[in-house]
Amino acid sequence: MKIILLGAPGAGKGTVAKRLTALDGSVQISTGDILRGAVQAGTELGKEAKGFMDRGDLVPDSLIMGIMEGRLQEADCKNGFLLDGFPRTIPQAEALKALLTKLGIKLDMVVDIEVPRDVILDRLCTRRTCENSQCQAIYNVKSMPPKVEGICDKCGSKIIQRADETEAAISHRLDTYNEKTAPLVGFYRTEGIMKTVTGTSSDAVVEAIKSELGM
Fold first, then answer.
1. Long-range contacts (CB closer than 8 Å, 24 or more residues apart) made by 179-183
2. Homologous superfamily of 2-26+79-213 in CATH?
3. Model pTM score
4. 18, 33, 124, 163 — which has fewest CB within 10 A?
């Protein structure tokens, strides 16, 4: 399958992507993953991207698209791919459309995962992360708490609430998403490949996508 997953922070894109890739050997690709991969591989584009990342600057779209072009031509993408959280803006969507045309790749579907704002706020505000950079295990104080309060089950380190997962920070992230990324729904609707799935359960979202693909 060749799918783009859209949805606000906390909508469950990552979880849905992992479950879908298990079905047919497709690979999950996020902007962060491909940038880190290019940097670790030491490619020319990776070195250029690292300069922006080290300065805390946004990596330019032209550079991201160059790295994406290389990634989509790697062998593991032959079975399909799921783009998780990319594109984020209309210019990126237009650049991706041109790139896919150039590579002779046709998308099966673009899926917008709709989750109520109050559910996302609750989901992210109750999320906790292991502070050990080598572990980074994720918990939820309501639905998946650690066995010992405040302590990671896996490595014994302290678990914390990330600075970008306070209610104020999450509200800002959702506002930014609605301003910059939500218009992509309209863009892909005009392309005729848009499917909106409303649901708070990853299982329900996966089943809806499978049904749409005839799986």
1. 180/88, 180/89, 181/6, 181/8, 181/88, 181/89, 183/90
2. P-loop containing nucleotide triphosphate hydrolases (3.40.50.300)
3. 0.80
4. 163
Annotated active-site residue in 13, 71, 123, 128: 13
Angle in degrees, CA 202, 13, 26, rounded to 5: 95
133-140: average pLDDT: 88
Helix crossing, 31-41 with 44-54: angle to 10°?
A: 110
> Is there a catalytic annotation at residue 55?
no
pLDDT digit string, tens, across residues 69-128: 989 999 999 989 999 878 988 999 999 999 999 999 999 999 999 999 999 888 888 989
Question: For residue 14, what pLDDT is reported?
Answer: 83
Which among 168, 163, 14 has a CA at the least distance from the CA of 84? 14
C-alpha distances in Å from residue 136, one per residue of 23, 98, 130: 26, 36, 5
Active site residue 13: yes
